[in-house]
Amino acid sequence: MAQSRSTERNGNHTSISVFVLLGLSDDKELQLLLFPVFLTLYLMTLVWNLGLIILIRIDSHLHTPMYFFLSFLSFIDICYSSSVSPRMLSDFLKDENTISFIACATQHFVGAWMALAECCLLAAMAYDRYIAIGSPLQYSAIMAPDLCWKMVAAAYGSGFLSSLIQTASCFHLDYCGPNVIHHFLCDLPQVIALSCSNPFISQMVLFLVSTIVGFGSLLFILLSYGFIVSSILKISLLKHSAKAFNTCASHLAAVTLYYGTALSVYMNPSTSHSMKQNKVLSVFYVVFIPMLNPLIYSLRNKEIKEALKRVIKRVTHLLQRDNI
């Protein structure tokens, strides 16, 4: 068990300096087998998301609000995965998985910031799709670059402030007893449960932030899609209706995947079985979703495929010219 030392933090006595993360499994052989798998998945997440950001930046045909938001979504996925995956990978190779009090708070802060910002950004992308379908003639005027930058700043700012409030309320508590977290990351509900002071305020802050930002964004997305469906139904030609809905399919898939997994993780009661189930779902939430998002938006997207072909053609032409 990790050793603890006493510190004084803003007048509150805190006796725990480290937490112990139990990780995905107690089986060291299994962890060694999982290491190359998760390393590959993490590298794929970095390559695909970074590649999508670069492609959107260098191809002028993709300089539209939809791809502008998508590039920032990819950046969020990189940061969110990087807040957990490198430590999880290093823990696979360790006998004792400990994390300092400060590192635990930092991991949660960055992870929650990105997760909450993604909720807001998905809502902004739903609004963008509503304007594109409901008011196509005014789309360029409404979704001007200035508004897009403000919406991105609002998404990141809301995530930052919400995460800061959550993290401060949780890690300001006294921790003087058990320091074992039954997870591979600093899961806030489990951290709060280890506190030896009254956690009511922290639990209420966690609930309110999750409700206002998480469910508030989901409600906005659902309302946007309600208006989108209404606009699509007004389109008389079936071909045009299908094309309009196709522009929303990738975003709708990403929202379903993101919120479906998140609700499955945090709406389950805290039982021994659900904790094991939550670890598996959290792996999907932390590792797979950031990797899948760029694929969801790229595989059936003709504009991204065409942009990739143009970039490859340009690079090939430059290489051939240099060889001449």
TrEMBL record:
Keyword annotations: Cell membrane, G-protein coupled receptor, Membrane, Olfaction, Receptor, Sensory transduction, Transducer, Transmembrane, Transmembrane helix
G-protein coupled receptors family 1 profile domain boundaries: 48-297
GO MF annotations, alphabetized: G protein-coupled receptor activity; olfactory receptor activity
Pfam families assigned to the protein according to its UniProt record, in alphabetical order: 7tm_4
Organism in which the protein naturally occurs: Tupaia chinensis
Localisation per UniProt entry: Cell membrane; Membrane
Stretches that traverse the bilayer: 32-55, 67-89, 109-127, 147-165, 204-228, 249-268, 280-299
Any one Gene Ontology cellular component term annotated for this protein: plasma membrane
Descriptive protein name: Olfactory receptor
Family of the protein in this entry: Belongs to the G-protein coupled receptor 1 family.
Gene3D superfamilies linked to this entry: Rhodopsin 7-helix transmembrane proteins (1.20.1070.10)
Topology of the protein relative to the lipid bilayer: Multi-pass membrane protein
